[in-house]
Amino acid sequence: MSCILLLPGIASAQLCTGSLGDPVVNITFGAGPSPIAPALANGITNYTYTANSFPQDGYYTIENTTAGGAQGWWVTTDHTGNTGGYMMMVNARTSVSDYFYKQTVTGLCGSTTYEFASWIMNLLKTNDISPPNIEFTIQSTAGTLLGKYTTGTIARENSPIWKQFGFNFSTPPGVTDVVLTMKNISPGGSPANDLVLDDITFRPCGPEIKTYIEIPNEPTILETCSGSTTSYNLKATINANYLNPDYQWQENTNNTGWTDIPNATSLSTTVSQSATGSYQYRLSVGEGAVSVSCRVVSSVVSITVKDAPAIVITTNSPVCAGDVLSLNATGGATFQWSGPGNFTSNTAANGISTAGPAQSGTYTVTATTTGGCTSSASVEVVVSPRPIVSTSGDIEICEGSSTTLNAGGGTTYLWSPATGLSDPNIANPIATPTATTIYTVTVTSDDSPCPIREDVTVKVVAKPVADAGPNKNMIKGNSVQLSGKVAGTNIGYYWTPTDFLDDPNLLNPVASPDKNITYTLNVTSAAGCAIVQDQVTVTVYGKIVIPNTFSPNGDGINEVWNVTALDGYTRALVSVFNRNGSLVYKSTGYDKPWDGTNNGSQLPVGTYYYTIDLRNNSPVLSGWIWLTR
Description:
By secondary structure, this protein is mainly β.
């Protein structure tokens, strides 16, 4: 069992080339909220304490920052970066009797090799005349020199850099207490020899001990998942032999501190963990059953147990056949589903459209976290069938008619809309809609909790519309065209009687009756709805003959202006004007012909002018009359 003694001036982050034990001594100078800490105990230094953050030569202070010091110093905090952590700031001087740190270290073991180390920084960032050169001396309390080490020049750096310095030494048999002394041996001067000191440690040093997990590739770091207990065999190798080795495996759970594992006292041990957490393992080794301060420890094996995903499945089950079945899972980074009907999916959320009873059953999802832990969960899904319903199908009826709706296959029925139904809550209501209507029946069955809906369309065929048009007047011997109109779909029409019509199947036939007659327009529907009728009367007037002369002279011949057949036009307006345009005669109807007078006075012989408006939409008749005597 051996350790290498480092030569002066050589610095290393770990001076022991083998394995180290836990620090027997760890001097950190403490921590606190105040920038300056109280002085060290008497005898630890023969420098003078100052509460000023800028000590002069031969002075020291305990502080947690150098920010208030000289402008030529680096601004730094303690080596470990602890909040409020203190360090010893020394403005060193050169004197044979000077020492800036001296400490009696107790609790060591005899016949044991230790690593002594301390972290030091050269504070000067400019004009360093004489950089620090620290001499470490370790003696027994009886004054026997056990080891001496010099750092060599600790050169000025371009940034504030902490460096670890130290060496290995061995205690003689029976020696458990030693005296550590630190002093500066570089030449004095200003600026020079300004340094900070922190984290002084004494640690047992022994052969290199390596540990690993006895699985392929022999890792020292392993991640596993909670949910099942897995055992792992830990093994250690030592590059030198102990005469009487004492082995003890230790565990550090969630960084709560190292504790011995009962009965784990060989080069290998078996551990098992299932609970989530961080677990560290190491092997502590000593020559015989010695104190903890004499033992070294191996490299660390870490096993981290991560949480298996806590899967939460949500679904809208139970659902009815034809609806969308939703399946959702949370708790992982990736998902893999399986289920009835060879269902598979690798998405967290799924929607199975138009699900049927075949989709009922167990759905299982396996979720995987980003750390690779997996777990599975299942859910039972029910897709209920719907009743098998029969309906009458779509129906066509005539306006004003009724029909019976038919549905079957269920226990309860509800028709909507209820308007025009005799009873919306029965299977076969009578429907009397006024317009085309889509009736929806909702059917439920004792055999299924799911309703089903079916539509029945009742098409209402509107009655056709017949309009024979306005009554017509005509003069005998002439013709008149009827003005029939119809409305509707898939209709036919004809006129009755057919007498005196050029074509009774035309909507607007020409009529030439010789006497008054009434025609009927008949309209029929291809849907079989009732015939609709409307009538028009054609009034036939006699042929009017207008004489152009008469002689009211009392001889009893041609005494009046006798217009033939005009008396048949009871609404006719007859007007007579003299050649000056003055009205001399006016009559509605012509039951008493004009006798050539105006207001009882005879009119002179001459030419007169007439207009005759029959008021039957025929043209106004006009012309001249010669009145003679």
